[in-house]
Specification:
By secondary structure, this protein is an alpha+beta fold. Helix content is 43%, strand content 26%. The protein has nine helices and twelve strands. A hairpin with a 5-residue loop joins strand 10 (271-275) and strand 11. Helix 2 packs across helix 4 (150-157) and helix 3 runs antiparallel to helix 4 (150-157). The radius of gyration is 19 Å and the shape is globular. Bound molecules: (R)-mevalonate.
Amino acid sequence: MARAPTKVTLFGEHAVVYGYPALVISIPVYVTVSGSPSTRFSLRSGPVHLHELSITIENEKLYISPQSRDLLLKYFSYVIEATKLLGVKGLELSIESELPVGAGLGTSAAVTVGTIAVGAKISNKDLTKEEIAKIAWKVEERVQGKASPMDTFASALGGALLVRKSGDQWSIERIRVGELPLVVGVFRKRRSTAQLVEMVAKKMSELEVTKSILKLIGEITENALKALETGDLALLGELMNVNHGLLEALGLVNKEVACAVHSLRKAGALGVKMSGAGHGGAVIALGDDLSSLESVLRSCGAEKTFIVKSLSKGVEYPT
Ligand code: MEV
């Protein structure tokens, strides 16, 4: 059995795909993958967030709508690719997640990291956390088309990371984070990460200012790093607000999230932003009175809320 944590992107999502730095923390909210050797592949999963699923049984035949089939395949494709890359010939897997898949908190990366950790153990491959992260990143690239190593490295390595690209090389740097009072709300995600990454890529080719927006997000991340080091929460909050504004300019914020962001600011949050790929998914707020911010998130329609008290240590084999 392997336990892989999810993550919260503090700064720099989307811009990171184009090489700009992003700041990510790994949180102790887990995906648990259990497995046993088998001659075939089988997969069982706990409740997942599959949006609208349309399956009909007629004359003892099962009909799955094309959209529902796409959703199922998308969810399982991370597992299929992970087992392919590991060269595992058969596996019986069971996946339980504390968060819905597609929540914007790196659940698919955690599913991938957990699957690789279990697959490696079963096939007697001794992989380090870095090796697990690298394989998981490759899986995300295959499934999503374009992916930064942010989500997969955060899940595999744990802690707080600064992720950036210079030239062709990605660098992952561990950073020290002091007190960081955060509340997280999860909203129904309306579009997949792949669709949203594609949407930004299209904007890049059609609207010149998009490049400047992404560059500016990179600068905000650099500034946030300094604010984190000095523990300047007021500045950090301000930078979260600006980063959110730029993500909104890229068309990544839907009505439900926009409404939650404004209500949280009105309720006294030091800073609020969407986190992850956008169009629903996660909203993070920095503040003093976290339980009242949590109630605001719930009244704005968040499906799940939680307070982040500590960081996780990355993927583990619990005993
Ligand atoms: C998704 O959680 C974050 C994105 O930046 C995509 C990626 O980094 O692969 C939108």
